[in-house]
Every structure is written in C-alpha cells, then in structure tokens.
Amino acid sequence: MGHDVEVADFERMRGQGRHHNNQYIKSYLGTDALVQEARNLREKYYFNALNNNEVQLMPGALELLETAFEQGITLAVATSSYRDRGKATLDQFDLSKYFTYQVFGDEAEKMSLDLPMTQLAHKLYTQLAEIGHADKGTQAIVKLWWE
C-alpha cells in the first residue's frame, strides 16, 4: 500500500490485540478505511496461499497431535485469528477432530475472554521471545518442547 514496513513494526504488533494493531497500522495509513483495506488484502493473501497449498504444517506437528489425542490428552486451540481464518486452517489440514476446545480471536474479543489457556500461551511466547525465538511465532513453542 505504498509504505515500507520493517521487521520491528511486526514485532511491535506481535502478541497485541486487534485494536492496538489497528491503531498502529493507522499511524502509517492514516484512516480506518485504509486499515480495513489492508486487513482485507492480508486476508485475501492468506486464503489464497491456504487454497494453493502454500501454508504448511510444521514438520512433526501432526504426529504430536495424533499422539496426544491417542493418549487421551484433552487438547485446545486458542488463536488470535478470527474464526473464518482459524477454522479454514484447521479444516485444510483436518485438525479440528483433535481439539476439544477451540477459541478464536473474534470470539474472545466479543466475550472479553481472558482465559487460562490464552494467558499460558502468552506466557510461553514471552519466555520464547526472551531467549531469542520471538520471530518463530507459535511454532517456537513446539520447537522448545522438542529441544
């Protein structure tokens, strides 16, 4: 959209809520309408990549889920992604069946949820960021588990 964005800009938004990030993006773009246009472009890009099989599971992720599921471990997924994006991703890889609980960003915002699982996910991410894995996102949790 005609603006240079640095990695540091993404780091400032990582782990923040939609409202915070919209305000940050607005400081670049100037209007709420342009922020929404940018979000729409991002969603279009993501769904295009997902539909073209350009989004991949991290190696070993499916095996980890299958093993936990087979052992009777109750699994939950909590994501900042809105339901349409999160559900589409789970469905693309046939993962919904492994998760007893699914909480998506738009649902959490509507209900003002501050759940133990989202608190734990944020805590784990913070710990990962402190040891230099901030750029790895959620996948760093799995990598840390295996190390």
Characterise this structure.
With 147 residues, this protein is mainly alpha-helical. 61% of the residues lie in helices and 4% in strands. It has helices at residues 7-13, 18-29, 32-51, 61-70, 83-92, 105-111, 116-130, 139-146; strands at residues 76-78, 101-103. A two-stranded parallel sheet has the order 1-2.
**What is the arithmetic mean of pLDDT?**
78
The termini sit apart by 40 Å
Uncertain runs with pLDDT below 50, 5 residues or more? none
Which sheet architecture does the biggest sheet show? 2 strands, parallel
Q: What's the multimeric state?
A: single chain
Helix- and strand-based class?
A: mainly alpha
Shape summary: globular
User: What is the gyration radius calculated from CA atoms?
Assistant: 16 Å
Residue fraction in strands: under 5%
Brief overview:
This protein has helices at residues 7-13, 18-29, 32-51, 61-70, 83-92, 105-111, 116-130, 139-146; strands at residues 76-78, 101-103.
